[in-house]
Amino acid sequence: MVNNWKQSTIEKLENDYWKENSNVSHLISTCQDLRKKPLNKFEIEDCRVMIGQDIGLVYLIPIAIEFLEKNILAEGDFFEGDLLLYILKSDKNYWLKNVNDWNKVLQLFNENKERLISFETTKAIRTNLFEAFNEFENIRINER
Predict the structure, then answer these.
(1) Which residue stretches of the chain have pLDDT < 70?
(2) Nearest Cα to 106, choosing from 140, 57, 142?
(3) How would you classify residue 43: left for phi > 0, otherwise alpha for psi between -120 and 50, otherwise beta?
(4) In angstroms, how far is the first alpha carbon of the chain from the final one?
């Protein structure tokens, strides 16, 4: 990637321009709009939405990791830690090809494990995070 890739948009970087369609769901419309937004303007929720749809992962995972480095419980519109959960559940194929990012997420999770165990949340959210991490951790282990 070129040095100023964050100033570009996903649609420019991928050279893939989606046809505008007004007769789509709110989620699809949001994704269409976010593909046109400069990456350096992306907020946590923008990353969460797009990563949740496995769109632009090669660009958005590194940005999302930056958010997690500042706060492992970075929060979009759902709950504390929702960005982490969406990263952990994102497309397995991305992680198989991007071992450095996989290692960074693994390290971040392990370095913050105590915080993830003790932050105030529901049992369901905590369980979901740790189950997703176990599956995430095994992505590359099973490929060796």
Answers:
(1) 1-2, 142-144
(2) 140
(3) beta
(4) 28
Per residue in 61-84, pLDDT tens?
999 999 999 999 999 999 999 999
Instruction: Give me the amino acid identity at 104.
Output: K
This prediction's pTM: 0.91
User: What's the residue count for the chain?
Assistant: 144
